[in-house]
Every structure is written in C-alpha cells, then in structure tokens.
C-alpha cells in the first residue's frame, strides 16, 4: 500500500474520532496511555496495529509524524484530529494541565 493512502487512513481515523490511540498489544506504554485516558473518563478509539491489515504501513506513517525526537511509534495519540504525540507528550500535557482542556475542546470530555 502506498504511504499517501495509509496517511489518508490515519488522518481519516483521527478526524472522525475525538481521541485515537494507536497501540500494539503487549506494549507497556500503550497500556499506561490507555489507563491514563480511561482514568480521565475518555473512551479513546483504540487501533491495535498488530491486528490491523495496514498495521505496518500505519506504523511507518506514525514514525514519520513522531520523528521529532521520539523513539517509539506507539502509543501514538491523536486528539481532535491532530497528532498529540506519544506517551511522553501525553504525560507532559497531563502534568502541565493542558491535557484536560484539549480533551474538552475535542469533545472527548463533557464535564
Ligand atoms: C505542556 O506540555 C506540552 C508537551 O510537552 C507542551 O507542548 C505545552 O506547550 C505545555 N504547555 C504549557 C502551558 O506548559
């Protein structure tokens, strides 16, 4: 599959769901990211790449998106159609208080 086509799949998933979490089963940091979102009351759309037909291609796209200093391609979190980042960015936003407003803006949290 072409990379542009895969990029479309990713942007479509991201823009049609408030929060999307790309994961691989057995990835610890993916579990940490899921737990954090669940604990905030968010039910993210979870895409397990090892169970997705285009999983490898999607990982290549995520790798391109996260090439600014991130080491792992998963978890990759999209909020409101935009690429937020991986676990480090998610945690940093949680700690500095920008995560909840971001989730509210995206319509992932109502309260
Ligand atoms: C919070 O952390 C994120 C991720 O590091 C950063 O992009 C953002 O600018 C920070 N915001 C504030 C208000 O510190």
Automatic annotation (TrEMBL):
Gene3D superfamilies: Glutaredoxin. Its main location: cytoplasm. Residues 19-83 form the Glutaredoxin domain. It is found in: Cytoplasm. InterPro entries: GlrX-like_pln_2, Glutaredoxin, Glutaredoxin_subgr, Thioredoxin-like_sf. One of its GO terms (cellular component) is cytoplasm. Keywords: Cytoplasm, Redox-active center. Belongs to the glutaredoxin family. CC-type subfamily. This is Glutaredoxin domain-containing protein. It comes from Citrus sinensis.
